[in-house]
Amino acid sequence: IKNFDFLDYFPNLEYINLSTQWFDSATKINIKKPIENLKDIVFLESDFWRIVVKHNHLFPNIERFEFMSFDDQITEFVHSEELLFFPKLKFVNLFHSRFYEERSIYFSHRSYYDEQPPGTAHIPTKFMDQLSKLKDLEEIDYLLLENLDNLKKFKKLKKIKKLRCLYGEYEKIRGSEEEIKVLNKATEKLDVKDKRFFKLDWEEFDYE
What we know:
- This protein is α/β, with parallel strands linked by helices and about 210 residues long.
- The chain contains 4 helices and 7 strands, in the order E-E-H-E-E-H-H-E-E-H-E.
- The protein has helices spanning about 45-55, 100-105, 110-115, 175-185; strands at about 15, 40-45, 65-70, 90-95, 140-145, 160-165, 190-200.
- It has a 7-stranded parallel β-sheet, with helices on one face.
């Protein structure tokens, strides 16, 4: 596919799943008007995702993104702040994919820098609390929070496959039965398959 001009012929398109792997991330989408009916896009590679993010104004009513195999290289991770360009988003599903934020936990531990050249700059952990701005978000496969209390700001959220939260003020209950009770209380109205706190320091590593 050399360009996306063909989209002009499908003004009522609701779903996109392009199997080709040959995209140039610099490609421009030159269509006459936004695709108002488009609700769902499947991404099989990162270049198409970059193109869609760059032209987010052409996809105003997106409700679902499905990401396939976005974890091979640092440039191919999904960066959660880019989701904010799509304010009507409801579902974010990952298949053999990771958010950059999940990987950034590893970047904050000594084991990563032991493998890097001397003087490698420290890469801070990034969190996803800001996704509460997506007022219609109902389901996301991974959520990394800096503050567990911010989970309350996700007003319509119903399902999380994997939830990770920095201990923060809950460090004092680390390793106790109270820790589980706190997590269960915070997620009692949600369907959460895997949930736990994690600690960021130079001795511990919690990537998975």
